[in-house]
């Protein structure tokens, strides 16, 4: 271990921290407003270049944040003066697919602490001490099992008000190495499951004219990478799924109060991706930091609290992913090379979501790039 890796300060230092600080200082209209005021108090005239310069800058960033704010307000039919009433968590019934491990497990247990009724759908049981988490064994890639589970949930618990489609699987194989069973599992769990659960639970939301559907996609659904053809394609489908669902709810079902949130994270330090090979250099970790599960969970809960339809990109660099396709080919290839996206899966070993015919996961070798 190098002397740099032993410092907790350096471990938490990344571009996301800088972006957060800058958004509250150099790019904050409230903060920037006081800079020309300070110069005026020091004797500067209103016609001085420094005052005019900061004044123009203040107007520019104010317009930028106003457009951001009004765009979300418009999308969610919000009021210019009044925000939505606080979320009554005690009245919510939350269904989480793939809630037995990773993001889903942490999300289920975190919501349960808020006295939320949580329902977990998974092929494996969730290990928890929270009494208000109910587990139903269900292969969400199969419509028959989802339909049966939905019927039981409605009879025993009630109509879900929030659906979090979190279940996912990754094969980590080159295209020619993928078997039909691999491809069917990938699209069944990552894509078709969203159709089945939404078909099962959306009718009651439409009847009540409110609800929230969270679609967990991936940055790999926006940009492709080698050895992830099936995964990238399955996650790309969810981006279009979320957008189309939003327009159906707004214009065909006339239920704009049913919110939709799309989550596009980068690499998350969960068991599913624990054998991904990531660079260990400080610069790479600074620019492309892997996500801690708690970061994603906090952001999802915040989105539910806000009661707004939105798209979430984590960490900071993923905000630029929708624009990568617009780059010239040589810059696009440079971005792929810098992020090492085409080689991250080289030594990948599938750990979670293994089918019976695949047997147990082989013993994992010590990997210096593996997250703690």
UniProtKB/TrEMBL annotation:
Q: What is this protein for, i.e. what is its function?
A: Catalyzes the reduction of all-trans-retinal to all-trans-retinol in the presence of NADPH.
Q: What is this protein called?
A: Short-chain dehydrogenase/reductase 3
Q: To which protein family does this belong? A: Belongs to the short-chain dehydrogenases/reductases (SDR) family.
What are the protein's UniProt keywords?
Lipid metabolism, Membrane, NADP, Oxidoreductase, Transmembrane, Transmembrane helix
Q: Where in the cell is it found?
A: Membrane
User: Source taxonomy lineage?
Assistant: Eukaryota, Fungi, Dikarya, Basidiomycota, Agaricomycotina
**Entries under SUPFAM superfamilies matching the protein:** NAD(P)-binding Rossmann-fold domains
Gene Ontology CC: one annotated term: membrane
Q: Which residues span the membrane? A: 21-44, 50-70
InterPro entries, from UniProt? KR_dom, NAD(P)-bd_dom_sf, Sc_DH/Rdtase_CS, SDR_fam
* Topology versus the membrane: Multi-pass membrane protein
Q: Which GO terms describe its molecular function?
A: all-trans-retinol dehydrogenase (NADP+) activity
Question: In what residue span(s) does the Ketoreductase domain sit?
Answer: 92-271
Judging by the UniProt lineage, the source's domain of life is Eukaryota
């Amino acid at each position: 271990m190098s002397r740099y890796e032993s410092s907790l300060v350096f471990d938490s230092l990344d571009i996301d921290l800088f972006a957060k600080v800058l958004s509250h200082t150099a790019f904050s209209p409230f903060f920037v407003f006081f800079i020309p005021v300070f110069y005026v108090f020091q004797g500067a005239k209103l016609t001085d270049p420094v005052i005019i310069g900061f004044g123009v800058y203040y107007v520019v960033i104010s317009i930028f944040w106003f457009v951001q704010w009004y765009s979300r307000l418009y999308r969610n039919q919000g009021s210019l003066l009044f925000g939505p009433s606080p979320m009554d968590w005690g009245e919510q019934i939350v269904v989480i697919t793939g809630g037995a491990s990773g993001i889903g497990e942490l999300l289920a247990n975190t919501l349960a602490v808020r006295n939320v009724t949580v329902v977990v759908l998974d092929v494996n049981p969730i290990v928890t001490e929270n009494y208000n988490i109910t587990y139903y064994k269900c292969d969400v890639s199969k419509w028959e099992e989802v339909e049966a589970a939905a019927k039981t949930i409605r009879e025993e618990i009630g109509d879900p008000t929030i659906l979090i489609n979190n279940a996912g699987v990754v094969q980590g194989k080159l295209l020619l190495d993928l078997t039909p069973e691999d491809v069917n599992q990938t699209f069944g769990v990552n894509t078709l499951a969203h159709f089945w659960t939404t078909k099962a639970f959306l009718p009651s939301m439409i009847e009540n004219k409110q609800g929230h559907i969270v679609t967990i996609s991936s940055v790999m659904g926006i940009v492709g990478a080698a050895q992830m053809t099936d995964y990238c394609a399955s996650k790309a489908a969810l981006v279009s799924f979320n957008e189309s669902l939003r327009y159906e709810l707004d214009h065909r079902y006339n239920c704009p109060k049913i919110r939709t949130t799309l989550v596009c994270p980068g690499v998350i330090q969960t068991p599913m991706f624990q054998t991904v090979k990531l660079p260990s250099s400080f610069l790479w970790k600074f620019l492309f930091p892997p996500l801690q599960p708690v970061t994603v969970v906090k952001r999802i809960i915040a989105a539910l609290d806000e009661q707004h339809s939105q798209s979430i990109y984590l960490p900071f660099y993923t905000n630029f992913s929708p624009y990568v396709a617009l780059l010239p080919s040589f810059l696009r290839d440079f971005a792929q090379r810098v992020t090492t996206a085409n080689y991250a899966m080289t030594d990948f070993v599938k750990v979670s979501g293994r089918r019976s015919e695949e047997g147990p996961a082989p013993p994992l070798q010590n990997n210096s790039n593996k997250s703690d």
